[in-house]
Every structure is written in C-alpha cells, then in structure tokens.
Amino acid sequence: MLEVSDLRIGYGQVEVVHGVSFNVRKGECVALIGPNGAGKSTILKTVCGLMSPLGGSIMFGGRSTAGEPGHRIAGLGISMCPEGRQVFSEMTVMENLQLGAYTRRRSSIKDDLDEMMTLFPRLRERAGQDAGTLSGGEQEMVAIARALMARPKLCIFDEPSLGIAPRVVDEIEQTLLAIKARGVTILLVEQSVSMALRVADRGYVIEAGLIVLEGSSAELAGNKNVQNAYLGF
Amino acid sequence: MLIDFIQQIFNGLVVGSIYTLIALGLTTIFGIFGIAHFAHGSVAMFGGYLTYFLISALGIGLLPSFILAMAAGALLGIVLERVAYYPVRNAPPINSFIIALGLTLIIEKLNLLAFGVDQVIIPTPLVNVINVGGVTMPELRIYVLAIAAILVIGMTLLIQRTWIGMAVRAVAQNRAAAVLMGINVNSVSMFVFALSSALGVAAGVLVGALFAVAPGVSSGLVIKGFAVLILGGLGSIPGAIVGGMLLGVSEAFAAAFVSSAYKDVISFLLMILVLLVRPEGLMRRSSR
After folding, report:
1. Residue range A1-77+153-170+185-233, CATH number
2. pLDDT tens for residues B23-40?
3. Per the CB < 8 Å rule, is A71 touching B182?
4. Residue A177, min C-alpha distance to chain B (Å)
5. Distance, CA of A204 to CA of B70 (rounded, Å)
6. Are B176 and A95 an interchain contact pair (Cβ–Cβ within 8 Å)?
7. Engineering a disulfide at B284: which of B199, B225, B276, B280 sits with its beta carbon 3.0 to 4.6 angstroms away?
C-alpha cells in the first residue's frame, strides 16, 4: 500500500534522513521506532505532504506522491494524527470531527460521527465544547477520531502518547488496538517503544536518519540492542 | 433627551454597520494571513466609483450596479491575493507589510486615473424621511442598515455553517492541521480575499450613497476598520460586529453631545481605553 524507497529529506541544506526504505502493507500496523531526532517525524511529515523530499520515491496505492501538496495526499486516503494533537482549539469537538471528514464532505457523515462518539464516549459529553478546553488525553481522542473520520486507507499516528498523563496512555494503547482490529492500516511513530511493539505487527528502527534494523515486533522485542537501547532491560 | 439618545443610537448603528463591513474583511484576512491589508479602503472606494460609473455612464440600475461592483470586487480580491500576497506568503512579515502599503498607493492612484479626482455621490431614489416618535430616520439610512445587516448575517452564517466557512476557520487556527484534513489552503486564501473584497466594495457603495466617494475617504475607512479590529479583537468575527457598532455609536454620541470636531478623538480614546483594560480586544478569549 505504502512503498517508500531511498527517501532523503532535509531542512534547507542539511539532510536529516539519508535514504530510508520501508513499506506498509494493507491491513498491517507498522511502527517506526528510534531516538529523538532520528528523523521519524520528518519522514511522516513528508509522507503526508507537509514537507517535500530531496530525493527518493513514495508510492501510495501504486501512485507516486512524493512532493505532492498535503491536501491532495489527504484526498488520496492518507490521514494523519499529528504530534502534539493539533486540534482546532477554538472550534467545538463536533466541528473538529466534521473537519476530519472534509475530503468526504459531499457524502453523509452522520453515521461516522455517531460511530466516533460510540468509540470515544467522552467526546459525546464534550461534543459542544471548544477542543482547546479539553485535557491532553481528551484532545488526543479528538485528534484520533478526527483522523478516522476521513475513513482513511492509511492512518498515520505521530507520537500519540507524548505529553499525555500516564494513566491515559493505556487508554490510548487500547484505542490503537481497537482501530487496528477494525482493519485500518496503520503507520505508527511512538516514543514508548514497548507500547509500539505491543500494537504493531512489524517495526523499523531508525537512528540518525537511517534504518538500522527491521523485523516483526516479536523479533525486535527480542533483539538485544533494542532491549538495551529502548526497552530498559 | 431620550429621543436624542435613540436618535444617536440609530445614527451610530448606520455608520457602525459600514465599519463592521470593512472590519469583517480586514479581520478575516488578518486571521488567515496575519497581514494588515491597508489597501482594503482603496478597494472599497474602487467599488464606490465603479458603481457610480455603471449607473451614470452606462445607465445600469442601482441594484445591478451594486451587485456587479461586488462581483468585480471579488475578482479584484483574488488578483490581489495571487499577484501581491501569494508570492510572499513564506517570507518574513515585513514583506507583506510593505506590499500592503504599496498596494494602497497603487489602487488609490488607479482609482484616480480611472475615475478622476472629483468626489461623487451615488444617486439613489431613496429620499423619504420617516419619523417615529420624534426619531428621524431617512429611508436611505434604513436601507443602508438593512443591507449591511443582511451582508453581515450572511457572512457569519457562511463562516459558521458551511464547509468552506469551516475550512476558513480551520486554516486561521492551524494551517498545517488544515492541510492534513485535505483543505486546499490556496483555494481558501483566494476565497477569503474574494469574500472580504466584495464586502469592502459593499461598504464603499454604502458610503458613496450615504456620504460620498472621494480620493481621501479610503484611508479614513481603513483606519476606522483597524480601530474596530483592535476594539473587537484581531481575527474575531463577533469582535468585528460588536466593535463596529460600538465605534459607530460612540462617534455619534461624541458628535451629538460633545462636538463633531472631537468625534474621532473620542472614538480613539475609547480604543485606547479598551486596549488598557482588555488588550486582547472585547471578544477575544484571554486564554490565547
């Protein structure tokens, strides 16, 4: 479904991702893990079209999307739940969810809204409230529900547990598992590597802009280097 | 005394509704681009002149001329966005600031070249004066208030209730997240300039019917427009409505009960007062 090859990305003249290749197959959940500054978020932003790559290719559903504008990529069926949530803080929870379905605005979204409110009962209580007044965990729910409202072919999560109260992190993990169980294809970047490997089927370890290791979640969790560096064994 | 009071509220609301129309455009443009679009007053005067020209030179009726001028204003807005502001969208803010100043001069001079230096009054058949319990309400002023109210309510519904309106608010609040939703920021930018400029033209036509279209009017309009923005809160639509009415009414009171020479002084004193007490503006949440 998503095929990234030899992707190089930079800020100005400084290259930070030096030829990264990975893929996500339909129905799969794939995690990118690695230390801060490895280039994970940069890769996600490029896949979503918020940044243009210096080189390499991104194929989505058999079509090249490298360097395409972000709104067009969203229209192709890639949804992103961005780092730091990025909810529309002066709009209501309901409006945030409606905007998630912007690419489907010509069809009825009422059932989808209802489905999201069932998946996140807290959002139903808060539907008329401005998203900016919600707690961090609730805003994360808004951001996740908003991303799902597009009925994406591929849903990308960038650090969903970052800056969230520890007791809510479990809830987010359960949510990700529930979304996966619905058959949504997921690409996940998550600083909590143990959580990422519990949720994902496969993973890639990225360090300093290069993929240094790849394998199934079980393989990665059993790898000595991964255990030492990320799992705190 | 009560009659005087009501009379001045009426007078103030009429002028205030025109300030609101100007301020709605300025505040929406500011919300999306973060730019102070000084040329907005000149765009309004362009609309006033164009309407006068359509009526007097081509013999087109008042209402069709008004609508044609608003359509021309929308087109002009799109051209301004594409040619002047789009190229500097990622540059430091000082660039668009200087471009805004330059645009003001250019449109002002184009108005002079196209329409001459004379002040013109847009002719209307509305000459009756209605008297309600001692309050004098010229028919023309009632129409001005009604047209402005329809446009303001229409604009508010558009922004609050439609997909394109939601897209406009989304881009104003979080541009990157809006892109992720699939919103084409370019189209939204052009739409905002078209809508704002059409409203600015409407304000210019109302001014032209009520007072006059003249080369010097545009700067006064744009200054009042920004005063409304500061009163109501930058980027806030309810703020533009409340601020515009407040400015209009306070000017009317100042002119009637103090001195018409001091009306601008008093309205700007009010603005300074609001800045001292609520620097974020009347309708802006202080949390931001």
Report:
1. 3.40.50.300
2. 999 999 999 888 999 999
3. yes
4. 23
5. 56
6. no
7. B280
